[in-house]
Structure prediction request, 438 residues.
Amino acid sequence: MKIVSRNEELLRDALSCIPQPSSRTSLASCNKLIRFEDISAAAFKIQCGVQKTPCMYSRLSKQYGMDIYLKKEFLQYTGSVKERGVLYLLMSLPQDQQRKGVIVASDSNFSMAVAYHASELRIPVFVIMSTSTAPARVRMCREYGAMVISYGTTAKDSQVHARRLAQENGYLYLEEEDSAVYLSGLGTVGLEMYEQVPKLDAVIFPAGGHCGLLAGSAAALKHLNPHISIIGVESESFPVLQQSLKAGHPAEDQACNNHHFYGDVSGVCFGSNSLQLTGKLVDKVVAVREEDILVSMLRLLEYERATVDAEGAIGLAALVAGKLPELKGKRVAVVICSGNLELHLLQQCIAQALTLENRVCRFSLVISDCPGDVSKLLEILAREEARVLDIKQERTFVTSELFTVEVICTVETRDKIHSAQLRNALLERYPRTVWTER
Prediction:
């Protein structure tokens, strides 16, 4: 049965034929109208290959004054929502191309999804990674079943090599783009959320340069209910989507941060289809600070036991930062789309977030180097219910006076109020206490 709504006209306007950039040598896809039926067909075709992830009511709801439902796409096998678009893309390839194989060149979530699903479909798959790629990512792709080749010191070197191998051997070079097939696969997230959470008022998605999830899901949700507010969230450091929407075309030569923490959030805007769909169907795009993303990661770990990366946490960060006050009292779904964060980065992120929340504090003070003086300091900390994480004593390089010791202490507190109480108690006993500010 065909469901007709005025949103098909919006989609038709948004996807009038736009030529693909010549540098995209991957899938030769026609930028046809993305219809609701296309997204429904994708959902039917991939239902046995991807998880129907839960969209669960969150304990964070009371804290932020709204009913928050978290769509946990990080529970996909490779830890990313990209599986939906990738699987539909691979299943749509002609059989002769499936026999020849595909090749990708990056360490992104897209490449990991290609590695896994191509192997599951018995499609030969090659992943070219630079020598600077994290060993865990290389190991993961090999475990998924891909042939992983290390080449070059930069991502560009790997891409050039992958294109050459594709041309010489007949492989299809895949690069994340906004073909109708890929967007339809990603749009199945919107279908599931609409089914799982009745009477939704708003849905929050990660945005940034790779806004295919936002665009595809917006197409599905706006068709089903034009009154649902669709909101995209990107980083203040590189507001690629906002700049592209303002310019009316994908922004080029963006100064994006290459740090692994940001992942796909900092990618360049990759296509006109996604951009025009976003311009037509998305109600609002907001930007958040890096600090808000870190605190959002901490909230998800504490309240949901969810270990996510920046892309996964950025949607909730808009609520943490108070960027969407109009959603108070509303029913809101947030897509937690990715959970692929390297372990050493996870440690750093949680430590930084605790510091930002004033839950880990550091101070230094100079006391007499006499027996029992350090014990008196520890008694004050115990009385104030501060947990000592680290304590160091410096005697040799103390310049204030002889026979004194500088004590540098890192403690854990409950919150900002508790930190202030501890600070006042220390200043009362040790007036020259130096409190390290974040």
User: Anything to note?
Assistant: DSSP finds 17 helices and 14 strands in the chain. The chain has three domains: 36-80+180-251+259-352, 81-174, 359-435. Residues 180-196 form the longest helix (17 residues). Residues 128 and 409 are 47 Å apart (CA to CA).
